[in-house]
Amino acid sequence: QLRLVESGGGLVQSGGSLRLSCAASGLDDYVVGWFRQAPGKEREAVSYITSSGFNTGFKTGYADSVKGRFTISRDNFKNTVYLQMNRLKTEDTGVYYCAASNTYYSGDYMIELPYDYWGQGTQVAVSS
């Protein structure tokens, strides 16, 4: 059983930055995605990064709304995946969840289906 622990959330002004972390023992074998849920809205995919098992190298994906502002990365020595969030906007407010998958999926990892494990979430609040 993989236990994901998110950290790094908080309150920041619009235009500011935060870095979220998702840590778990053995995480280097998993594709990791970040999702978020704003108040009153459905949970949506933000970004993902593939595992070291992909022979094409790490692949990443981003939602259109965060491209150019957010960067996902991983440190396999630390079993941690990061989401660097820059130029934050009020619409980035929500609970951010990391999720992990060790199931090969031929489609895009920007949906919830492939993910088997979820963290508890970390709150991000961006004020105007």
Can you characterise this structure?
This protein has strands spanning 5-7, 10-13, 18-23, 31-37, 44-49, 60-62, 70-75, 80-85, 94-101, 117-118, 122-127. With 128 residues, the protein is mostly beta strands. β4 and β5 (44-49) form a beta hairpin. The relative contact order is 0.32. The model has no long low-confidence stretch (mean pLDDT 94).
Mean pLDDT: 94
Please identify the structural class as seen in this structure: mainly beta
Estimate what percentage of residues fall within beta strands: 35-45%
Give the beta-strand count. Answer: 11
Number of helices in the DSSP assignment: 0
The biggest beta sheet reads: 7 strands, mixed
Q: Regions with pLDDT < 50 over 5+ consecutive residues?
A: none
Q: SSE order, as H and E? A: EEEEEEEEEEE
Q: Helicity, in percent?
A: under 10%
Rounded Rg: 14 Å
Shape: globular
Separation, N- and C-terminal Cα atoms: 40 Å
List the main descriptive attributes of the protein structure presented here.
128 residues; mainly beta; seven-stranded mixed sheet; four-stranded antiparallel sheet; 11 strands; 45% strand; globular
SSE map:
Blueprint: E1 5-7, E2 10-13, E3 18-23, E4 31-37, E5 44-49, E6 60-62, E7 70-75, E8 80-85, E9 94-101, E10 117-118, E11 122-127
Parallel strand pairs: 2-11
Antiparallel strand pairs: 1-3, 3-8, 4-5, 4-9, 5-6, 7-8, 9-10, 9-11
Summarize the structure.
This protein is mostly beta strands and 128 residues long. The chain is built from no helices and eleven strands.
